[in-house]
Design goal:
Blueprint: H1 11-50, E1 56-59, E2 64-66, H2 68-74, H3 82-88, H4 91-105, E3 111-118, E4 121-132, E5 135-144, H5 146-160, H6 170-181, E6 187-192, H7 203-220, E7 224-230, E8 233-238, H8 243-259
Antiparallel strand pairs: 1-2, 1-5, 3-4, 4-5, 6-8, 7-8
Length: 260
């Protein structure tokens, strides 16, 4: 800054005085610039929360604020604490969620995508850490992915399930086979039904017979998994590799069929 003096003075006498004034002015100007930025960021956060962009939450170390869409999606009040949110999160995701928050609180400008089960919903959350005055806050945008997950799961279940017997099909067996073969505690039981006389019965009767056989077999092997490998071919996997135990189990199964 510049100083005009009408009288001539000794500069050494006023040097420290003007230097301190200069430092104070520099501090005030710098602070005003920062405050202007902070006001813009505060206005930005306020506008985000009030907008219809989607379900949004701002999170600080001491509080949470949910906009109206986030309240509706997550069944929460505007200022519910994070602990209330975490109670509705599936337990398997809680630890990862807490770690993610701590990471974003460490510095502004970070972002992270999370997908988890919240109550009965599948949620995708986009987290972004922002500087708000001297604090770091996390802005989250939530997306409900439940319908997509249900559609995918339904399609996947149809792809791996036999439509007649509702057992796992050959496609799923092929998918699981590498895992099964690598296990040291799996036994395979292959059952082939003799349908030489099926021409004596109507197609509906044969289908009914296969359905009933599949159901009682699957129910019998409670600790195993039953697959329909072909029209009259069934494969059962059981978590047991002791020859005597497997033999006794098969005897019990045959006795069960005889008495059925």
């Amino acid at each position: 800054f510049l100083v005009y003096l009408a009288d001539e003075i000794n500069p050494d006498e006023y040097y420290l005085f003007f230097k301190n004034i200069s430092a104070l002015l520099f501090y005030r100007i710098n602070r005003e610039k920062k405050l202007k930025v902070f006001r813009k960021e505060n206005l930005f956060l306020t506008n985000i929360l009030a907008s219809d962009l989607g379900p949004i939450r701002t999170l600080s170390n001491i509080s949470s604020i949910y906009n109206s869409k986030a309240q509706k999606l997550l069944d929460l009040e505007s200022k519910d604490y994070l602990e209330v949110f975490l109670r509705k999160l599936q337990p398997a995701f809680v630890h990862t969620y807490k770690e993610s928050i701590q990471k974003l609180f460490s510095e502004p400008g970070l972002s992270l995508d999370l997908e988890y089960v919240y109550g009965l919903k599948n949620i995708k959350e986009r987290m972004v850490s922002v500087q708000d005055e001297e604090k770091v806050k996390i802005v989250s945008i939530f997306t409900d992915k439940t319908d997509e997950v249900v559609k995918y799961q339904t399609a996947y279940n149809r792809a791996i399930t036999d439509p007649e017997t509702k057992l796992y099909n050959q496609h799923f067996l092929r998918e699981k086979m590498p895992e099964l073969l690598n296990s040291s505690k799996i036994s395979f039981i292959l059952i082939e039904l003799n349908l030489d006389n099926r021409h004596l019965y109507s197609p509906d009767q044969v289908e009914s017979y296969l359905k009933e056989f599949a159901k009682i077999t699957d129910d019998f092997f409670v600790d195993g998994t039953t697959y329909r490998q072909d029209f009259n071919l069934f494969l059962i996997t059981i978590n047991q590799n002791d020859i005597r135990a497997v033999t006794n189990l098969l005897k019990d199964y045959l006795d069960f069929l005889d008495k059925y």
